[in-house]
Amino acid sequence: MDLHIIHSKITVMPHKLQFKVIHASGQDDIYRASELNHHSPLTKGWQSARFCLYPQDMVIQLETRSRLRKIQILSHQFLIPTKIEFFVGDVPDGAPLLLESARYARLGYVSLSDNEKTGYKARELKSVHVDAVGHFLKLNIHKNHVNKHNLYNQVGIIAINVIGDELRRPYDITDPDLLLDDPRIERDPALEGLFNKPDYISPLDDLAFDMYQDPEIAQIIRRLERKKQEAVLQERYDYAKRLKQAITELQKVGEKLGKMEVEKRQAVENEDYDKARLKKVQMDEYRLQVYKDLNLNDLLELTGSRHPQHIDLEPVRHYSPPTPPPRLEELPPPTIRTPPHYEEYPLPRSKSVIEPITVPAEETSKSPRPPETNRSKNNSPRTPHDSRRLPPPKLKSIKEDEEKALTLEEELPPEPENNQEAEPMSEVDLREASTAIDIFGLSLVSKAYSKTWSYREDALTAVHHQMQQMPTGNKEEAKSMLRAAIFLVKRGIDDKVYAVFRAALHLYRMLLTEFVPKHKLGKPDITSAVEKTLPNLFHKAGDTAVRNRDDAKSFIQEMASFPEVKATQTLAHECVKPFKLTLGPRHAQSRCEIVESLYQNFGLKGGLTIDNIMKFNVEGLNHNAGEVRDVIERLIKTMYKNHGAPIKDYLPPDDEKTRKNTLWRQLFEYFDQVDGKPPRTDAKKQKAEEEQKKQAEIDALQKQLQALRDMNAGKALRSDRSNGPIDASVLSKNDPSKKAAPQKKKPEAAKVKPKGNKPTTKDDDDVSMFTVDNICIFCGERNESFTEEGLDIHYWKNCPMLKRCTNCKQVVEIATYTDHVLTECEAKSNFSKCPRCSEAIPKPEYDQHVADKACNPHKTGQNHCPLCHENISSGEDGWKEHLMGRTGCKQNPRRLLALNKPAGGAAGNKTTAARGRGGKAGSVRGRK
């Protein structure tokens, strides 16, 4: 038998198998089962019909009879089945290769998460390891998880991938089912390093590679990978290094182009063809630039190989003439990134059909697991994580693990094959674990330090069982066992393997809730245990794996409720200790979320106070990470809502300088909202509006006062009072033309000269002291303070003959107020004149006013007061007596002010007023 012929057969390692979907019990019109035949970023996948019956069946046929090694399922983000069962089908010898002739063997099933925690946005990639032979693979897809997005109770699968080996009949071997690892086949020792890897699966065959890579880039990467293997065999290491760097770069390029292709397709579906064209141009330019930068033609040696020897490392699909194999070196597997949402479960071989692979969580029996004796001593590369199998006894945790989105942060070493003891501990480890060894023995502690994760988990389980079985009575021995167990719990919490971490938490929970009360240990022992383990839990709460973070934070919350821990108040004090600002954002955020949850669940109890929480919060607000400050800000707002003003004592003063900082401004604005105060921005706006309104009112009054000054000086004289009130809008103080106009010099009042030798009276002297500028032309009052500004104030506030219009705010004479409202006021359209009393009545009240006939009729030949509605004597003197007299109008508030002024001159004013208002220049006439 020619070894080279055998070599052409056995060099095939597990790889992607081509298949075709040949049967589906139902499908959506748009998302058909044929979509599963191809893998690309644009793959839409299969969806069941709306409101279909479950379970749904799907059968795929492989190109040839094959040995299945791995099955991958990429689930829809919200059309998620609860369970998928796997069956492998084969055709009996002599039967036609038809679907009806297939006989199926059940492999097992996997359950899928409901995806609620990811917001129905992430797609779950399930990978299961199998070892089965057949032509067909059947999927039994069970009912969907119910959620608000799945309106029609459908299930969906985006992609299916099958990895394995084709089974072919060698030309000189009679066994029809010769497998790749058949011990009868003789192997060349020179080929062992490369080809003796029956479980190695290239990352390039992984489903994630094709689903997130641009198809053209994916093909180039595969070609470069083959060229890299050839270069290693030919010892062209510089060339192999260039190829490795190019592959790494092209993986990033392929993912980016894949995203751009999806965006382009979305633009086409939205009929945004401009965007689609632009996206296509960007992709083409980017692709060509990358090819140019990488010098792709040179890398692929398309211009001619620089090495005469050609070695083909592609998996052999067909017979090829035998060639002497070269001496091969062991090749490291290429590293390809895979999405984080990833799970792997082993399934049994098809030869032993068993019940579902999920084992009840109550089972604790474990088969002995030998250590890795030789694996840790050699330098052979580790098996990639996605190719490692979980041991069957650990399947009891599958159901719990499926409730969380699993990631690839764990390092699971392969299980040992022989039943042996754990590897010996180093001298350093022996010294470190001396206390635990004295209590639990070297054999058990060695397992806790083993490189095999299952041994570490077994050690914690054994400690758990031993602590539970310990009889009461010896408190000192119980304390020693507690200290030794806490030492192992700390190591378990820091373990990278999730199963070991969970076992450590399970042991720790038992110690605090069962062991401590049972043996009546005191607070110092509990405090010591909590203080030793909390830093490890805090660190785990900031882990990159989501389930590690969630479990650590949940356990801390659970610890706070344990009666023994709650009594010590240690946990609360440790949690609110301010952390260093150099702490990483993820760890700092987890600490803040723990404190927030403690406050929400327990309030100011169990060691939490406003003082220690707020000191923690103030330090947390100084952290550089925004997500940390967001949690602290949320906690401060909650505390202020519950406790009010004391929270402000720990914060900077609430002033304009502090509010310039966005964070403080948002906090103080929330405080104002809780206190029922209007936001300062609204208060400032309202104050500005009030200032503008006040300024406008002042400007209007100044205009009116200027008009009154102009009347006093003779600038705007009217020959008849019937012409109406002073119009301030015409005589604007702000009018540039008015400012530029020259001011006429006001004539001084002539002094009264005594006639003959008649002595000068006091009245004459008093009159001679005043000028026209010191006299009010309306009421006749004279005053030395009646300068230009003094008269303005007098007209505005004090003159009993004037009033401000309630509608337009102009200062008008009371005698002409009715005419002003009806003919000149801005609101004149809102009033009508009563034919009975002749007053201005608002139109909404006019009809009722006239109908009631309750008003005081205006008598002919008399004046009618618009304030008190009484008829008074005719003429100017009648108005003056009514508006200024002691028994005059009781509705004129300025009358009493004028009467209560110091003596100086009602009588004396009369003469002066006559002189001051003599002639047309200084009088307002036209009164009725």
UniProtKB/TrEMBL annotation:
It is found in: Cell projection, Cilium; Cytoplasm, Cytoskeleton, Microtubule organizing center, Centrosome, Centriole; Cytoplasm, Cytoskeleton, Spindle pole. Residues 900-915 have a biased composition (Low complexity). InterPro entries: ARM-like, CEP104-like, CEP104_N, CEP104_Znf, Galactose-bd-like_sf, TOG. Residues 426-680 form the TOG domain. Residues 321-337 have a biased composition (Pro residues). The keyword Repeat applies. It comes from the Eukaryota. GO terms for cellular component: centriole; cilium; spindle pole. The keyword Coiled coil applies. SUPFAM superfamilies: Galactose-binding domain-like (SSF49785). Keywords: Cell projection, Coiled coil, Cytoplasm, Cytoskeleton, Repeat. Signal peptide: none annotated. Pfam families: CEP104-like_TOG (PF21040), CEP104_N (PF21038), CEP104_ZnF (PF21039). Residues 311-398, 674-696, 715-765, 900-928 are annotated as: Disordered. Interacts with CCP110 and CEP97. Interacts with ARMC9, TOGARAM1, CCDC66 and CSPP1. Required for ciliogenesis and for structural integrity at the ciliary tip. This is Centrosomal protein of 104 kDa. It comes from Biomphalaria glabrata (Bloodfluke planorb). The lineage of its organism: Eukaryota, Metazoa, Spiralia, Lophotrochozoa, Mollusca.
